[in-house]
Amino acid sequence: MTVLAVLAAALGYEWLSLRARVWNPWRGAAFTAGCAVALAGLGMHAHGAAGHMGQHLLVGMVAPLGIVLGAPVTLLLRTLPVTAGRRLTRVLRTAPVRFLISPVVALVLSAGSLVLLHLTPLLAYAMSDPFLHSALLVHFLLAGCLFAWVIAGPDPAPHRATVRTRLVVLAVAVAVHATLAQLMYAGTLVRTPGTDADRQTAATLMYYGGDLAELLLAFGVFQSGSRQVRARGGLARTGHRMARP
Predict the structure, then answer these.
(1) Mean pLDDT per 10-residue run, the chain (245 residues)?
(2) According to the model, what pLDDT value does residue 223 have?
(3) Helix ranges, the chain (H)
(4) How far, in Å, CA of 121 to CA of 184, rounded?
(5) CA distance 228 to 70
(6) CA torsion, ordered 167, 171, 177, 181, to nearest 10 deg
């Protein structure tokens, strides 16, 4: 079902981009690449802790970057009828959605669930239960998309946190991943199943793969910050021209 949902999202995005009068092809390429990585990760036959870590990196960290950089909400707002677009905007401004898109909530759902996975027997259960394993992949894909969208998404979002706040939350995520990777490598406190070599390979993947994904997110934060500054500058210049006699 998850694979079909990702395929449907990719096809729906392509259809909407064709309906849009003007759309950045790089956005479309990013979204398509993100969906392709998600499909590759979901279709992997992971074995051992290292295989599952590689799958998590693809599904929960790399794929969400491409999907979010595709700016799907912006594309949806451009192609929806005016009434439907206003309804979507109102939904984005509701209290439950505002709570969900809080950087701290997004951090807990992404990095926090990864800590829970490795500090408890949950990963061992998931490796022996296909349904639980699939449910975890869905969770990491959605949580990864939420975190990437909240931290560095190019889509307009009501009540988006400041650049400083987002960078602080991202730094916390980096610290959580690095600490967990070091604990895994040392075999301390973690309940990650497998041999020492397998566990250490998984820790190495988390350490370096996570750093790369988070570095790209940091770049996205600065890009979104610069867009906000340019937008405010444009509004200020417009207001200045309108105020001139």
Answers:
(1) 90 92 91 96 89 93 94 92 89 89 93 93 91 93 95 84 91 94 94 92 93 87 64 43 42
(2) 78
(3) 2-19, 25-42, 48-57, 63-69, 72-79, 82-92, 95-100, 103-107, 113-119, 122-128, 130-152, 163-186, 196-243
(4) 14
(5) 18
(6) 150
SS3 category, 234: helix
Q: Are 148 and 70 in contact (CB under 8 A)?
A: no
In sequence order, which residues have a C-beta less than 8 Å from that of residue 237 and are 6 or more positions away? none
Structure-token pair, residue 90: 């109102």
CA triple 220-224-225, angle to 5 deg: 115
Is-contact 70 88, C-beta < 8 A?
A: no
> CB of 34 within 8 A of CB of 66?
yes
Give the C-alpha separation, 82 to 76, whole Å.
11
